[in-house]
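Protein in question reproduced for absentees:

***
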Amino acid sequence: MFEKLKSLQFIWFLIILSTLPLFLFTDKISTQPLLVTANLLGYLGLILFVWQIILGSRFIVGKITNKVIKVTSIHIWLGIYSTFLIILHPIILSKVYAESFLWIFSINFNSTSELFISLGRIAFILFLILWLSSKPIKDRISYRMWQRLHYLSYPMVYLSLLHPFFIGTLLKQNPALKFVLYSLIFFLTITILYRLSYWAGFFKYKYSVIDIQNFGSSYAIRMRAMDAESQKILSKPGQYIYLQINRFGESHPFSIMENIMNGDKITLLIKPIGDFTNALLQKEKGYILYLDGAYGDFGKESKPSIPRILIAGSTGVSTFYSMIGDFSINTALIVCNNKIGQVPNEDYLIRRLGNSYHQFISNKLNNGNNSSNTVYKKLDIDELKKIIDSQKTTPEQYYLCGSKRFNKGIRDNLKKLGISKEIIYIESFS
């Protein structure tokens, strides 16, 4: 059985290994400093960009490690530095050839050398479109438009890889560098074909809708596996899946609220906040959905003997059902909502946790009578301290699941109360 990586050091090792052939050319910098530097930066930026695409595929990453979110951080890091290097490459070359900045964008197919130089120019133009959609104008365009623009990375990277093969003197002088580029082309192609297959719904788990239950402003959707025992999602507490409504449609992540009989039945908690979730909640019994996962390692540090406090914002509570099911001893749960009646199976939580279950209703229009479990006010630092102090055993772990803004506010208050960041674990959703 293939063991998933518990450390990301091997991924870093492969990235660094793929760049080593470039160091064989450092002695040539003294002969033609600008030209050699420009080419080395171009190759390094290209190698990092290819790795960024490969590590941006959760289908590939999920096969080798559960640390998908941490790999996403590497993906972002590679994007930042590959961008810087790729932009420097043509700018320095324009200085080498004493050309104006517009030379970078001059498409010319009059000769073989100009053809392959122009492939690099086209790739650079596509790259600029990608960069603009990722940074300066990202907040001004829709998620769908942003996602579609990112498909430009496929032709862009292939054009970039073709660009040096007939004009790259460094490439001709170093078989090791050529081997690295051929290897990256191979793995990149496998990655893209795999992603396209997943987009088409292949290799995904098929689940049919059992029912959809309303809980105020959120909904619990239950579904059943369609295929054999081997075609069910096996998940650990705190993990999430990606759900696709139709083949060739977009996928969105949802925490697994409940996983029964090793994936035979799965329940998700969903809040209708956009076209995708609204369309999902319109599906009737028997409708086929496409799932992939499970991903994530949130909650892996949990053990029955460790006292802990779980803090959820809105539908973030779905992450904690399975964690509570496994470990309810020495566990307190705090749920923050703006309305009453939004927590599915609340009776179950009260039965398992008793007075260690706390719900805070922040909307002033929904005032009611406080009870042992429900308080009609926003969870502030004083209430947080009161709950922490009321625990029989000092909490050794704090788990937060909610929006980034919610998690930041709770984390800041915990730090003010002297809680070390080392024992605060966070999972955020958009």
Q: What stands out?
A: The longest strand covers residues 205-215. The chain has a mean pLDDT of 83.
